[in-house]
Amino acid sequence: MSETQATPPPAKTVLVLNGPNLGRLGRREPEKYGNTTHEQLVAQIESEAEDLGLKAVVRQSDSESELLNFVHAAADAGDPVILNAGALTHTSIALRDACAELRAPLIEVHITNVHTREEFRHHSYISAVATGVIAGLGVQGYLAALRFIAGAT
């Protein structure tokens, strides 16, 4: 690279977090969640992020405490977050409080339309602190969230 050429800025990091049971995508209730495996979803997210000039860091955990640590790290780094908290969406005030620390966009994603499912899934503790919510678009919801973040950063 010549001295007159500027070094391109590093790609903006986006943290994509998947909560409990999402590591079992493609095997767990495919009639609801589809046939895409978590590994295939990660590849789709990473490819779409790269196409958008972003760097996706995808993490999945069945542990609430580990998800809290991931959110805290994103808050400290100022990184946007795409979060599918799974069942913790409806139960975890601690995760909601951690998400409230985020200053960059937080997009809550659900593969299914949680509002057409069991009553207990209709309430989200995360939505109140999220920039936006995407539900019912299948795994395409993650890609829509990436496109939003690419336009917002």
UniProtKB/TrEMBL annotation:
Domain of life from the UniProt record: Bacteria
Enzyme class name: lyase
Catalytic activity, as annotated: 3-dehydroquinate = 3-dehydroshikimate + H2O
Pathway as given in its UniProt record: Metabolic intermediate biosynthesis; chorismate biosynthesis; chorismate from D-erythrose 4-phosphate and phosphoenolpyruvate: step 3/7
Residues the record marks as active site: 33, 110
Site (Transition state stabilizer): 28
Biological process annotations from GO: amino acid biosynthetic process; aromatic amino acid family biosynthetic process; chorismate biosynthetic process; quinate catabolic process
Binding site for substrate: 84, 90, 97, 111-112, 121
Enzyme Commission numbers on file: 4.2.1.10
Alphabetized Pfam families for the sequence: DHquinase_II
Functional summary from the UniProt entry: Catalyzes a trans-dehydration via an enolate intermediate.
Name of the protein in its database record: 3-dehydroquinate dehydratase
Protein species of origin: Mycobacterium gallinarum
Organism placement in taxonomy: Bacteria, Bacillati, Actinomycetota, Actinomycetes, Mycobacteriales
